[in-house]
Design brief:
By secondary structure, the protein is an all-alpha fold. The protein has one domain (25-201). Helix content is 88%, strand content 0%. It has helices at 2-50, 56-79, 84-106, 112-136, 141-163, 169-208. Helix 3 (84-106) runs antiparallel to helix 4.
Length: 209
């Protein structure tokens, strides 16, 4: 009987240890996706701002590439989430990005007005989804605040475009570039915060075992 009792705690330790190792790994995977999305947004923002006399066709390509890559990174965030709420929210964001990219590409020779409405609707829906994630993911106060900020930035961007749908390609490029820069910085900050949290957990969990 004593032999069985001695082996029971030992058998339970590997399962608990694997769960503890998996928690920091999820933080690292999510933070990597956030940082990559932030860097992508910064690159797109810089391209959109410094590109003089941008054409609608060129702007469509820039937006579509951004949307498609963003969809892949949001999907990666979804599958690195531990609970159903963030999984659903990030998958929804991935589908929104994918749909926006497809619409922008398959639309034959879109006018500036049509592209403005596509981008505005995309910003609205993505922004409200980010805010939903902030209140449904159970994150820390700082992380939740950044989710809310990025959501509000997207919503504000959509409001500006909806209020002035008659802006030209150059104005749209500048606004989209500014939005991408702000969004990119917030995503990088959020990713760095999550990476620090994962590193803290990695150092604390072995001591608590």
């Amino acid at each position: 009987m004593s032999t069985v009792d001695l082996h029971q705690p030992t058998a339970a330790r590997p399962e608990r240890g694997s769960r503890e190792k998996g928690i920091p790994a999820k933080f690292k995977s999510t933070s990597t996706s956030l940082i990559l999305l932030g860097v992508l947004s910064l690159v797109v923002g810089i391209i959109a701002i410094v590109w003089p006399n941008v054409t609608i066709a060129a702007l469509v390509i820039v937006f579509a590439v951004y949307a498609f890559i963003g969809a892949g990174l949001q999907a990666a965030r979804a599958f690195s989430s531990a609970t159903a709420g963030p999984v659903f929210g990030h998958l929804l964001l991935a589908l929104i990005d994918l749909a926006a990219g497809v619409v922008a590409v398959v639309w034959p020779s879109p006018t500036a007005l049509a592209l403005v409405w596509v981008v505005a609707i995309w910003a609205f829906v993505a922004g409200f989804t980010e805010v939903f994630l902030a209140f449904g993911s159970g994150e820390k106060a700082g992380t939740r605040a950044l989710f809310i900020v990025t959501g509000l930035v997207s919503i504000a961007f959509g409001v500006v475009l909806a209020a002035r749908p008659d802006i030209g390609a150059v104005a749209l490029a500048l606004l989209f570039g500014l939005y991408s820069l702000i969004y990119g910085i917030s995503q990088i900050v959020l990713g760095v915060q999550l990476r620090k949290t994962g590193a803290t957990l990695r150092s604390v969990l072995p001591a608590a075992a």
